[in-house]
Design goal:
5 strands, 5-stranded antiparallel beta sheet, alpha+beta, rod-shaped, SH3 type barrels, about 130 residues
C-alpha cells in the first residue's frame, strides 16, 4: 500500500494562484457531524432521565401528616413556617420527583385540598410526604 504513494509523497503542496485559501474554520465545518435525525439525542436523553416512583405512605405516616396539617391549621393566623416535601408527577413519563420547599403558610384550602404558601405556591395535600415544623 505504501508503494501507491511513492510518486507523490515528496511533491510540494499545491497552492492555487487564482483562488484564496479557505479559512480553517470553514474547512473544519465541512467535517462537522451532521444531525440526520433531528431530535434523536433529545429523545435518548429523555428516556435516560431518571424519575422517582411515588411512595405509598403507611397509616402511621398518614396519621402523623394529618396531625401536622391540623397543627398548621390551628396556627394559621400567625402564618406558621414549615418545610414540606412533596411528590411532583413528571409530565412526560411515569414517575416524578420529590421537591422540598419551605416558607410561611397563608392558609389551607379545604375545597381543593391544597396548602397555600405566602408566596402563592400551592401544594396538593395528597402529594405531601413529609412536613417539618
Amino acid at each position: 500500500m505504501a508503494d501507491n504513494y511513492n510518486d507523490i509523497i515528496n511533491m510540494p503542496h499545491h497552492v492555487s494562484r487564482t483562488r484564496a485559501q479557505m479559512p480553517r474554520r470553514s474547512r473544519a465545518a465541512q467535517f462537522a457531524p451532521f444531525a440526520a435525525l433531528t431530535g434523536y439525542e433529545d429523545a435518548v436523553d429523555e428516556s435516560a432521565r431518571r424519575t422517582d416512583t411515588r411512595a405509598e405512605l403507611c397509616e402511621d405516616d398518614v396519621a402523623e401528616l394529618n396531625k401536622k396539617i391540623q397543627l398548621i391549621g390551628a396556627r394559621i393566623a400567625s402564618e406558621p413556617y414549615c418545610e414540606v416535601t412533596y411528590f411532583v408527577p413528571d409530565r412526560h413519563k411515569a414517575g416524578g420527583a420529590y421537591i422540598t420547599v419551605s416558607g410561611n403558610v397563608r392558609f389551607i384550602e379545604e375545597a381543593s385540598r391544597q396548602l397555600v404558601f405566602c408566596g402563592g405556591r400551592r401544594i396538593p395535600l395528597d402529594d405531601i410526604v413529609k412536613i417539618s415544623l
